[in-house]
């Protein structure tokens, strides 16, 4: 075991004034006080720069204004010590015990505190810029308004810590534990919070601009009025997280888990990955969010628990304007699926509500019954005619359902489009009836971009309700 230099220790015990005067005379002298017992000592303003103080016992010591820059205090006991205004620039405090110590206003920039015990320590207004706090225990610590820019807190325990108003710009908190921590108003811009546990944390009004929260646990977190602009929340757990009033512009929530998540008074219009969220239960969205966000992915709206009927009427509810397009059920032969998928995607992109069996039919559904219901629920049957569909009993059955709906409602339901000339040569049965009684959109050259777009625009115009119908 390394022992302190007894001569130096005796001189220090004579008092700070004598000690500082001696050090001034021989500034380059190596100081070694390793293992010294200085419990409760009054070392206010002591010059201990660069001193070797490994394993020293400074429990309850008074070190206000002490100069400890570049000192080696690894494994030292500073529990309950008073270090306010102390200078600890680039100090080594690895695995040191600083529990319940008063470190308010201290200069700990670039200090190495990895593995240190800072539980319940008070670090208000402390400067910890660039400090290494990896694996440190800061549970219950008070870091109110502290500066931790570029600090490393990877795997640190900050559960129930108070970091309100602290600045952690570009800090690394990867895999840290911040359960029930208070981070209200904290600046975490550009911070790394990937895999961080923020369960039940208070992040109200926090600045998380461009922060990386991928895979973070934000369950029950309070993120009201937080700034998450350009933030990354991919694969995050957002169970019961509250984003009311938050700024989520350009944030990425792809594959985030949502259940009872609150999106009140939030603009979701520029949020990335909404369609890819994993909905493990319903979530909350309010009128203000819908009004601010514009058109949102239907898969997201369905995932949070809105019914298809409500989704259909969102545009008219928000703008007090009629519904822009009829909703459609697309009938086709599986051999024409490439075209059907393209048409479905383009109609959805233009705000037309579409349904077709391969994408929308639930697993285990009773096919015939569910498709009949889908046809009844949608305004129009968009019929894709080809040599394959004209000879399909399945398509024939769908056409019969649509024609029956026309007879009952006395409204036009069937909207036919063709991919070849087969229907134009038909004279018998339902195909011949459609040829004789309907104007059929011509998508025969659908693989030609310009030709496709021309017919598609015409179809969109036809799918707009007439003003007399909307009145």
From TrEMBL:
<dbReference type="InterPro" id="IPR035897">
    <property type="entry name" value="Toll_tir_struct_dom_sf"/>
</dbReference>
<dbReference type="InterPro" id="IPR051082">
    <property type="entry name" value="Pentapeptide-BTB/POZ_domain"/>
</dbReference>
<protein>
    <submittedName>
        <fullName>TIR domain-containing protein</fullName>
    </submittedName>
</protein>
<dbReference type="Pfam" id="PF13676">
    <property type="entry name" value="TIR_2"/>
</dbReference>
<dbReference type="GO" id="GO:0007165">
    <property type="term" value="P:signal transduction"/>
</dbReference>
<dbReference type="Pfam" id="PF00805">
    <property type="entry name" value="Pentapeptide"/>
</dbReference>
<feature type="domain" description="TIR">
    <location>
        <begin position="324"/>
        <end position="464"/>
    </location>
</feature>
<dbReference type="InterPro" id="IPR000157">
    <property type="entry name" value="TIR_dom"/>
</dbReference>
<dbReference type="InterPro" id="IPR001646">
    <property type="entry name" value="5peptide_repeat"/>
</dbReference>
